[in-house]
Amino acid sequence: MRTLFILGLWDYKSALQGRRNTDVLLIIALALIVAGFCLWVIRFVAHPTARTLLRVFVGLCLAAVVAYGVLASGFPISLLVS
After folding, report:
1. Which pTM was predicted?
2. Considering Cα of 62, then 50, then 42, then 34, what sign does the dihedral take?
3. How far apart are CA 57 and CA 29, in angstroms?
4. Which of 4, 26, 58, 62 is the most buried (most CB within 10 A)?
């Protein structure tokens, strides 16, 4: 994630890394969009079990985005596990 904001992607290896970062950002953006859509849909679901499952799914989407952000920023994994 740190290499994402480097403006000079001059050689092919750096350009490939930039492409991978773009793919990851696209996945994160889609996860946020799906979570937002599910939050909007929850108000229209009448069945309590389905509503709870949608809330759990939204929580998992947002937790995945936060976990990736923490790990990609260089935070040591050993501190998260312990």
Report:
1. 0.57
2. positive
3. 16
4. 58
8-30: average pLDDT: 65
Q: What does the CA dihedral 13, 16, 17, 18 come to, rounded to 10 degrees? A: 120
- The whole-number pLDDT of residue 49 equals 93
Confidence of residue 54 (pLDDT cuts 50, 70, 90): confident
Between CA 64 and CA 59 the distance in angstroms is: 9
Query: What number of helices (H) and strands (E) belong to the chain?
Result: 3, 0
**Tokens encoding 17:** 């890394």
Instruction: Return d(Cα 32, Cα 51) in angstroms, integer.
Output: 18
75 in Cβ contact with 69 (< 8 Å)? no
Q: Which amino acid is at 80?
A: L
Check residues 15 and 26 and name the one with the higher pLDDT.
26
